[in-house]
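Milestone 3.1: sequence recovery, worked example.
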């Protein structure tokens, strides 16, 4: 499996984890960062990484 499909699969998995954190962890309190915000950050990072990998073509 070359780099492109690996990046898409990894991005999809991380995006799903981010959506789950964003949707279902609103009531959980952690001392450093809220899990809801962590989910949004994961989704955004994967979107940027996926765009980079698709535009780089390597």
């Amino acid at each position: 499996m070359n780099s492109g499909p690996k990046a898409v699969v990894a991005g999809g998995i991380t995006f799903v984890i981010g959506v789950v954190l964003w949707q279902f962890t609103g009531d959980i309190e952690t001392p450093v960062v809220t899990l809801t915000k962590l989910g949004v950050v994961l989704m955004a990072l994967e979107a940027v990484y996926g765009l980079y990998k698709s535009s780089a073509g390597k």
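The chain has a mean pLDDT of 76. Helices lie at 3-24, 35-56.
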